[in-house]
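Shipment paperwork, digital attachment
Item: protein structure file
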Amino acid sequence: MERIAVCPGSFDPITKGHLDIVQRASAVFDKVIVVTMVNADKKPFFTSSERVDFIRRSVDDLGLKNVMVDSYDGLLADYTKKHNAIAIVKGLRAVSDFEYEFQMALLNKKLNPAAETLFFTTSSENLYLSSSMVRSIASLNGDISNFVPACIYKDIKKRFEKKGV
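Attachment content:
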């Protein structure tokens, strides 16, 4: 039986920190589905199709053959059931991440007992990194090249220039 994991997030945009978690998960599971989710508390800067494109290109650039990319606007627990996933992989940067992610893990376990939530701790070089920090730096015309994959860097910069942010 194929061991499938889902790696959910808003990925607005995907960062090198996200990719580190995805790459490590791909070494543990037969198949990893990176799925952009809708978060009612967030208004994304990039469209769902842009985020999927950024992730797909970044995953392809790393040569991760067992990683698929998708988007979904429903409950994560329903998505994991639909795709027969046995795990939800989440990255943790700090204790502040844990409290929220722990609550979500308990809810997802209640909604889909077949899927376990696994937490991967971030690599030390990505401890401070988040999509919102990347957007903030880019909006002030700062250099984000160390924080996002090279294959999508120009597209992200261009989008901020176009928006006049």
